Amino acid sequence: MGNDIWDGKVQCNKMRLKDRYSLTRFEGQRKKRKLEEGASERPSIGIPELQEAIANLRVDFDTRMTAHNEQFSRLEEQSGRQTTLLQEIKGMLIRMQAWNDDEEEKEDD
Fold first, then answer.
1. pTM of the model
2. Max CA-CA distance within the chain?
């Protein structure tokens, strides 16, 4: 060994890193094998069933969207009526303020 001084702690840490690397590599290989095995198995549901499920989801989605669109249209109409009413009230307030200002000017004269 000569000048080499063995440090047990460093050697131990090197071993742990090597063990960890081997373990993660092993786990990766195991996961890869499982995925490959799963890919070779027959799917539990066929293409026609998937197409039917997609069609059913599309119909359900369209039905819900139509209901939401109708509800949104009603809210838009209601909002428009309320906006018009608020504009009319604001106009009335402006006219009333102008009338009050005119009355105060008459009283001052």
1. 0.42
2. 120
Per the listing, tokens 């119909």 go with 59
Instruction: Tell me how far CA of residue 32 lies from CA of 25, 39, 42, 60, in angstroms.
Output: 11, 11, 18, 38
Taking the C-alpha atoms of residue 86 and residue 92, their distance in angstroms, rounded to an integer, is: 10
CA distances from 4 to 1, 7, 8, 10, 80 (A): 6, 9, 12, 13, 89
Collapsed DSSP state (helix, strand, coil) of residue 33:
helix
Q: 92-106 as b/e, with b when 16 or more CB fall inside 10 Å?
A: eeeeeeeeeeeeeee
Tens of pLDDT, residue by residue over 8-52, are 555 545 555 555 666 677 777 787 777 777 666 666 778 899 999
Mean pLDDT of 84-101: 95
